[in-house]
Amino acid sequence: xxxxxxxxxxxxxxxxxxxxxxxxxxxxxxxxxxxxxxxxxxxxxxxxxxxxxxxxxxxxxxxxxxxxxxxxxxxxxxxxxxxxxxxxxxxxxxxxxxxxxxxxxxxxxxxxxx
Length: 114
What we know:
- There is one protein chain.
- This protein is α+β, with helices and mostly antiparallel strands.
- It has four helices and two strands; from the N terminus they run ββαααα.
- Strands 1-2 form a two-stranded antiparallel ribbon.
- The longest helix is centred in the middle third of the chain and has 26 residues, at 46-71.
- It is elongated, with a radius of gyration of 19 Å.
- The two termini are 35 Å apart.
């Protein structure tokens, strides 16, 4: 789900606020990554299996994009186009934006890797 928000300032405030700040455009992406569990543990088949594979691929590519951005200029290419998820979030990850990730992780023993 993507919400687009446009904000205009009131006429009274336009005298105080600089002209280049009279308009603000925002996007809010809500992405549900449920289904990214290990396939062997869930026993998923058919369409659910394909969905889980696609989500895991998107998460892998998201990690690649974040890694490329963290390396900065050492990495010449940021692979935004490698998945639908990274393509959707490309303007949120790079450029002039604030991004917040919220992860819900289970503390169950089966999710622990040594």
